[in-house]
Design brief:
Elements (H helix, E strand, L loop, with lengths): L5 E5 L14 H12 L5 E3 L3 E8 L2 E8 L7 H10 L7 E7 L7 E5 L7 H10 L5 E6 L9 H5 L5 H24 L1 H8 L2
Parallel strand pairs: 1-4, 1-5, 5-7
Antiparallel strand pairs: 2-3, 3-4, 6-7
Helix pairs in contact: 1-5, 2-3, 5-6
């Protein structure tokens, strides 16, 4: 795309008790992107951890809101304003219960689909027109409550596949920054 800075946000919940849950796949992808760039997160006054890096050679800020998921819009809005990154250069990596585990979908804009993190972002940014890397975590079986499901850890068979899923999601973010939406969708929306 261009040489202007991007903001890549991984959504999740802070704290060790949430680290290995489905709701935190965004954090896991953000961590991998920072690691690939050889960069470290530092505290930002906007209630987020940020790292300035080149993601696949593109100038970017990778951020993780340090609030709970349903309040993540404030930190994202703050970091976005601080770095002067408009919504059209924002990529949000999120868990998606309506996609089977290990499925990815990349898109621009869309609804919140009951996702409290996305609702908070839309309220704070005044728009829903940003890029999304939706990481499928499944809905759970039977009558499993959605909130309970996303705050649970992964099943043993999923834990084996999780590193590959996180790696592929990070690849999709890099592709979005370097190749644009259409080529990324063709490669990753399988």
């Amino acid at each position: 795309m261009d040489g202007e800075r991007w903001l890549v946000v991984g959504l999740g919940n802070p704290g060790a008790e949430y680290a290995a849950t489905r709701h935190n796949v965004g954090f896991l992808v953000a961590d991998l992107l920072a690691e690939r760039a050889g960069s470290r997160f530092k505290a930002h006054r906007g209630r987020a951890a940020v790292c300035e890096a080149r993601v696949a050679g593109v100038p970017a800020v990778v951020a993780k809101p340090l609030t709970y998921m349903n309040d993540s819009g404030g930190p994202v809005s703050s970091v976005s304003a601080f770095y002067k990154v408009p919504p059209e250069r924002l990529v949000v990596v999120q868990d998606e219960i309506d996609l089977p585990f290990a499925t990815l979908r990349v898109k621009l804009g869309g609804g919140d689909n009951g996702h409290n993190g996305l609702k908070s972002l839309r309220r704070s940014l005044g728009t829903g027109d940003w890029f999304r890397v939706r990481v499928g975590v499944g809905r759970g079986g039977g009558r499993t409550n959605v909130a309970t499901h996303v705050l649970k850890g992964f099943a043993p068979n999923e834990r084996k596949e999780l590193p590959f899923l996180i790696d592929r999601a990070a690849d999709a973010v890099e592709s979005l920054l370097t190749d644009g939406l259409e080529r990324t969708q063709n490669a990753y929306n399988t």
